[in-house]
């Protein structure tokens, strides 16, 4: 759908699309190896196990520029980690599996992967209440910035 929508835009010749597993992100596997000044990860990590979350983020770290921003927006558990396996969703009309981590779990992983690489948190917050549609989960937003020394 993205390819189709971009194909008629004025910037179509500057766009590339690539599909790969989240744990496969990294300089060795990307068509364009960067470096990239901005990375946006939105609603993906909840569908990965803990090991793949960290592997994906380490791959992202490989391709960011000396001055860059990493944005992460994920649904998170409100009270305790919530793991769903083959859970039926009326909204999706299908089963799905997900892991809704707590914000501090994401923060600990992000710190492990990024803070020793010159990144600092500039935002770690719950997103606007208008996105609230589940009693067990909420949306959380993290922003890490790296400024060249």
Characteristics of this structure?
alpha+beta, 36% strand, two-stranded antiparallel ribbon
Biggest sheet: strands, sense, closure?
4 strands, mixed
Q: Supply the helix-strand structural class.
A: alpha+beta
Count the beta strands: 6
Overall spatial form: globular
Strand content: 35-45%
Q: How many whole angstroms does the radius of gyration measure?
A: 17 Å
Distance between the termini: 40 Å
| Strand/helix succession | HEHEEEHEE
Mean pLDDT: 91
- Helix fraction, binned, reads 10-25%
> What is the oligomer described by this structure?
single chain
Name the strands of the widest sheet in spatial order.
Answer: 1-2-6-5
Give the uncertain stretches in residue-range form: none
Continuous helix count: 3
Describe the 3D structure.
With 149 residues, the chain is an alpha+beta fold. It has helices spanning 2-6, 50-63, 103-114, and strands at residues 36-42, 64-77, 82-89, 94-100, 119-126, 137-146. The chain has a 4-stranded mixed sheet with strand order 1-2-6-5. A hairpin with a 4-residue loop joins β3 (82-89) and β4. α2 crosses α3 (103-114).
